[in-house]
Amino acid sequence: MSFQDMAAEAMGGSLEGDDIDARIDEALQCPCVADLREGPCGTSFSGAFRCFIKSEHPDKGMDCIPQFKAFQECLQKHPEHVEGIMDDAEAQEDGEQTFEPQEATA
């Protein structure tokens, strides 16, 4: 899935709206980006996502290179997180259930 496809899914198919910041905040709550948002690179992901949505460059997102680079560098520092996301995505494509309840800790 491309970044633009993921953004469109999270934004409910529309990348435009009156209160774009509120719509971006709402989109960042989408389960489709939860692994990225809640992982070790959540801050850099959110920055890149926000920049991409707001991008007015003719080649959407080209004005977000610094944010994408920061996100990429974070992912490179946390390969275990990327592998987990990819494993979950492959399992979902295969129709498997990937949610495993965790025991509560005291």
Describe the structure.
The chain has one domain (3-93): Helix Hairpins (Orthogonal Bundle). The protein is built from 6 helices and no strands. With 106 residues, it is mainly alpha-helical. The model is unreliable at 96-106 (pLDDT under 50). Helices cover 58% and strands 0% of the residues. GO terms for molecular function: protein-disulfide reductase activity. Keywords: Disulfide bond, Mitochondrion, Oxidoreductase, Protein transport, Redox-active center, Translocation, Transport.
Keywords:
single chain; 106 residues; mainly alpha; Helix Hairpins; 6 helices; disordered C terminus; oxidoreductase; mitochondrion; protein transport; Mitochondrial intermembrane space import and assembly protein 40; disulfide bond
What topology does this entry show?
Elements: H1 3-10, H2 20-27, H3 34-38, H4 42-54, H5 65-77, H6 79-93
Helix pairs in contact: 4-5
Compose a concise summary of this entry.
The protein is mainly α and 106 residues long. The chain has helices spanning 3-10, 20-27, 34-38, 42-54, 65-77, 79-93. The chain has 6 helices and no strands.
